[in-house]
Amino acid sequence: MFVLINASLIIALAGLVCFAAIVLLRRYASLLGLVQNAGERSSHTGQKPTGGGLGIVLAASLAGGWIVIDGQTYLAVPVVAALALGLVGLLDDRGKLNISQRLLAQGTFLVVIIIYLQSVFSFSQYIDWLGPAWLALPIIVLAGVLWINLFNFMDGIDGLAASELVFVLSAMELLVLTQPEAALSGLPLWLISIAVAALVFLLFNWQPSLIFMGDAGAYFFAAVIIIGALFFLVNGALSPAAAIILVAMFVSDSLVTLLFRMAGGFRFSEGHKTHAYQKLSRRWSHARVVVLYMSINLFWLLPLAFIVQKTMFDPVICVFIAYMPLVLFMVLSRAGRVEHV
């Protein structure tokens, strides 16, 4: 009973801190230099407060600190590393970083997490299917940096990125907590707290949004998903194929868009509005696109991830089945291609 009460208090703390932080961020956005003007990548007009993801970062950090003090000390490094990357995103929101500095910070985050996992859990033995450690570990670092940027690219309409975080964390929790030895403590409790904070943020970010998430949130969200997937992989609670399937919607849209744009001679870092979700939002609405993407997550990707998690089918084939229709959908949506009027 005490454990349940303690967990409930931590989750409630995350939600309340996030709510209070976002209210304050909206009020003092101009003073903090957190106002976003419409640009090439924007799907809005005029000015709007940004950096709302900082509310989730603060809430998650306090919840994580409580869990660490409560005895789950193995979480200290990932909590601090994710907080640091979120603060890097905040600097980026204020226009203080160039692309080299961003990539350096993201790479440093991944290196810290990998070194920690390797030193404490001999991480390389869990990814030997990628090859020897000297090859597998750099692959994970590069894939993680790519994921952080792909996730950031998907934060272009109201409610989408926060909804994706809620889905991925909740789905990972669902798959992990069905394991016989699972318990609501440590990492699972921290991730649930973050999901609750993200739900609170969605109250302010759903169309028409009152505040944007900003890079502070996008970097942190992507980092938390990486931490959850890697730590659950280490303790055998989550299949790597299941984790790859759960993020298929974002990976398919952002990666297909990126590849088509690079093939068209555009710089990968150049702002644009050619993602499939952005094109769909101009035809429909932000909310309808979010509902579509989350429906695909729930009714297509989650069942496939469950099948893989329960080893009911070959994981490689399941990953292929999950991604192929999504990639085709993005190609048919002309993701990454400029529409000539």
UniProtKB/TrEMBL annotation:
UniProt-listed Enzyme Commission number(s): 2.7.8.33
EC class name: transferase
Record Pfam families: Glycos_transf_4
A Gene Ontology term for the protein's cellular component: plasma membrane
Keywords: Cell membrane, Membrane, Transferase, Transmembrane, Transmembrane helix
Membrane topology: Multi-pass membrane protein
Keyword presence, Phosphoprotein: no
GO molecular function: UDP-N-acetylglucosamine-undecaprenyl-phosphate N-acetylglucosaminephosphotransferase activity
Transmembrane segments: 6-29, 50-69, 75-91, 103-127, 133-153, 160-177, 183-204, 216-234, 240-260, 289-307, 313-332
InterPro entries: Glycosyl_transferase_4 (IPR000715)
One example of a Gene Ontology biological process annotation: cell wall organization
Native organism: hydrothermal vent metagenome
Primary location class: membrane
Protein known as: Undecaprenyl-phosphate alpha-N-acetylglucosaminyl 1-phosphate transferase
Cell compartment(s), UniProt: Cell membrane
